[in-house]
Write a structure and sequence with these properties.
403 residues; 3 domains; binds adenosine-5'-triphosphate; binds magnesium ion
Length: 403
C-alpha cells in the first residue's frame, strides 16, 4: 500500500505514517467526529493471495478479528494502550488506538546497549502488573517484545498491540504465508503452536528483561530455525553468568519466568511483579559485585517438533541448524527491509527470510539482499552492517511489462 494514496481509512483521516511493523502500518490519524488524534494500525484483511482463501476462512478471520478486538477493547488500564475502535475498510482491517507520544522500549535498549538494573526492573514490573490485569480478563497479549512497550516522555510505560498478534498470525497462516516478525520472544508453547495462556506472555517478558540487562537476547542464533530450536531445547545461562554485576537473586527471577515448562514459571504477572519489587526495595537495584561463574550451557538434541514448526522451518529455508551457545554469539546488527510495493520475498545471502516489510537481526558484516515479487523485476543490493547498527534497505520494485 502506498501511503500517498490514502486519505481516509474507515472514518479516520490519515495525517502521517509513524511506523511499520511486520504485518501492518501505523498512522497518526484523526477521528473527524470528535477531533481525537489516534494511532491507526492498518492490516491487510485478505493477505497475500486472496484467491487462495476460501469463503469460510475469510469469515473465520473476520470473526476472529471482531472477537480479538472486543477482548482488547475491554482493557482499560493506565499501562495499556487503549483500543478505541476497530473495523474493516475494503481489504484492510484497521484498529484505532490511543496515540502515544514517545518512543519504544526497543529504542531505549538500542540506545543504551544495556540498561541499568533499577530502570529495567521498574519497566518490567509495571508490564508484569499490566499483563496480570489483562490475563485476569482472559486476554493474552501473544507478542510481548520491546517494540510493543511504549515509553511516554514522562517515562510511563504502556503495553501496545494487545491481541493483535493473533490477528496477524490468523491472516498470515491461513494462506500458508510464512511466519513474520521476530521469533526471539516467543515461548516454547507458541513455537510448538500449542495452547497458550498468560504464562507465555511472562516468558516473553522475561526475555525482554534478559535482553535489557545483558544487552543480549537469550535465544540468539543466525537462522530462524536455530532460534526456534534454541527456544524449545535450551535454557539460557543465568544473567549473572553473563554479567557479574547482575545479582543472582534478580537472575533467578528471570530464569524462573523463562522456564521452558510453563508449570515452573510464575503463575501470574503480579507474582513476578512483586518479586521484582521486593528485589528493588531490598536495595539490590544497584550493581553488586558477585563472583562470575564459568559459562555452561547444555545443548540438547532435537526433539520431536510439531508439523507447524517444521513448516515454518521449511518455508524459512533455514536448514542450517546452528544452535550454539549464546555466549559465543558474534556481533550482530539489524537489517530493515522495505520495498515499494510491500510483500516482496526477501533473500538474505541466498536464503528466504521473510517478506517486506521485515526487520532481521544479522551478523555484522557484508550481506547480499534480493527482493523478489511476482510481476516485478528482482531488486538487489549489498550492504555492510556494523555491530549494533541498523541499516534500512529500501528498494523500489520495477513492474515487469505484461507479456
Ligand atoms: N499507539 C501508538 N501510538 C504511537 N505510535 C505507535 C503506536 N503503536 C505503534 N506505534 C509506532 O508504530 C511503530 C510500528 O508499530 P507496529 O506495532 O506496527 O510494529 P512493531 O510493534 O514494531 O512490530 P509488529 O508488527 O511485529 O507488532 C512502532 O514502532 C511505534 O513507533
Ligand atoms: Mg507493535
Amino acid at each position: 500500500m502506498s501511503g500517498a494514496e490514502i486519505k481516509t481509512v474507515g472514518r479516520y483521516e490519515i495525517l502521517a505514517k509513524v511506523g511499520q511493523g511486520a504485518m501492518g502500518v501505523v498512522y497518526r490519524a484523526q477521528d473527524p467526529t470528535i477531533r481525537r488524534v489516534v494511532a491507526l494500525k492498518v492490516l491487510p484483511a485478505d493477505p497475500v493471495a486472496p484467491t487462495e482463501q476460501t469463503a469460510a476462512q475469510t469469515r473465520s478471520s473476520a470473526g476472529l478479528f471482531e472477537r480479538e478486538a472486543q477482548a482488547a477493547g475491554s482493557l482499560l488500564h493506565p499501562n495499556i494502550v487503549t483500543l478505541y475502535d476497530a473495523g474493516r475498510d475494503g481489504s484492510w482491517y484497521y484498529l484505532a488506538m490511543e496515540f502515544v507520544e514517545g518512543g519504544t522500549f526497543a529504542a531505549e535498549i538500542a540506545r543504551a546497549g544495556k540498561l541499568d538494573i533499577a530502570r529495567a526492573v521498574e519497566v518490567v514490573a509495571v508490564v508484569a502488573d499490566a499483563l496480570d490485569f489483562a490475563h485476569e480478563r482472559g486476554v493474552v497479549h501473544r507478542d510481548i517484545k520491546p517494540a510493543n512497550l511504549m515509553i511516554l516522555p514522562d517515562q510511563t510505560v504502556k503495553v501496545a498491540d494487545f491481541g493483535i498478534a493473533r490477528l496477524s498470525s490468523a491472516t498470515s497462516t491461513m494462506t500458508g504465508d510464512m511466519m513474520v516478525g521476530t521469533p526471539h520472544y516467543m515461548s516454547p508453547e507458541q513455537v510448538r503452536g500449542g495452547k497458550i495462556d498468560g504464562r507465555s506472555d511472562l516468558f516473553s517478558l522475561a526475555v525482554v528483561l534478559y535482553e535489557a540487562l545483558t544487552g543480549r537476547k537469550p535465544f540468539q542464533a543466525e537462522t530462524l530455525a536455530a532460534v526456534l530450536h534454541s527456544i524449545m531445547n535450551s535454557s539460557p545461562p543465568p544473567m549473572h553468568e553473563i554479567h557479574a554485576a547482575i545479582p543472582p537473586e534478580l537472575s533467578g527471577i528471570a530464569s524462573k519466568a523463562i522456564a521452558r515448562n510453563a508449570e515452573e514459571r510464575y503463575p501470574r504477572g503480579k507474582d513476578m511483579a512483586s518479586d521484582l519489587r521486593r528485589f528493588q526495595s531490598a536495595g539490590r537495584g544497584e550493581a553488586t559485585v558477585v563472583q562470575a561463574a564459568p559459562p555452561s550451557r547444555k545443548q540438547s538434541a532435537w526433539l520431536g517438533i510439531a508439523a507447524g514448526v517444521l513448516a515454518i522451518l521449511l518455508v524459512g529455508g533455514a536448514f542450517a541448524l546452528r544452535a550454539r551457545s549464546g555466549l559465543s554469539s558474534p556481533a550482530v546488527g539489524y537489517l530493515e527491509f522495505v520495498s515499494e510495493p510491500a510483500g516482496a520475498e526477501i533473500f538474505l545471502d541466498g536464503t528466504v527470510v521473510g517478506r517486506t516489510p521485515y526487520t532481521s537481526e544479522v551478523t555484522a558484516g557484508k550481506h547480499e539482499i534480493e527482493f523478489r515479487k511476482l510481476g516485478f523485476y528482482p531488486a538487489t543490493q549489498s550492504t555492510n552492517v556494523e555491530a549494533n547498527k541498523r541499516v534500512t534497505i529500501e528498494l523500489p520494485m520495477l513492474a515487469r511489462k505484461e507479456d
